[in-house]
Amino acid sequence: MTTSTQSAPRLIAIPETLNRTSLCKTALYDRIKAGELRPIKLGKKTVFAESEINAWVQQRLASREA
Length: 66
What we know:
A hairpin with a 2-residue loop joins strand 2 (about 40) and strand 3. The protein has 3 helices and 3 strands, in the order βααββα. The protein has helices spanning about 15-20, 25-35, 50-65, and strands at about 10-15, 40, 45-50. The model has no long low-confidence stretch (mean pLDDT about 90). The longest helix is centred in the C-terminal third of the chain and has 16 residues, at about 50-65.
């Protein structure tokens, strides 16, 4: 039996993603279509990896400082 030292990534639902990104639903879906954000489908539910959303926000902050 193999044990993993990595914990599973935290997943966040669309409402939390909207809150963290300050995007409206339409803008979120536009970013998905453009390939900027990558959702994960769990049955009928759509979620995002928290780490990817945090990285996306950090990239936006870094790009405005450049």
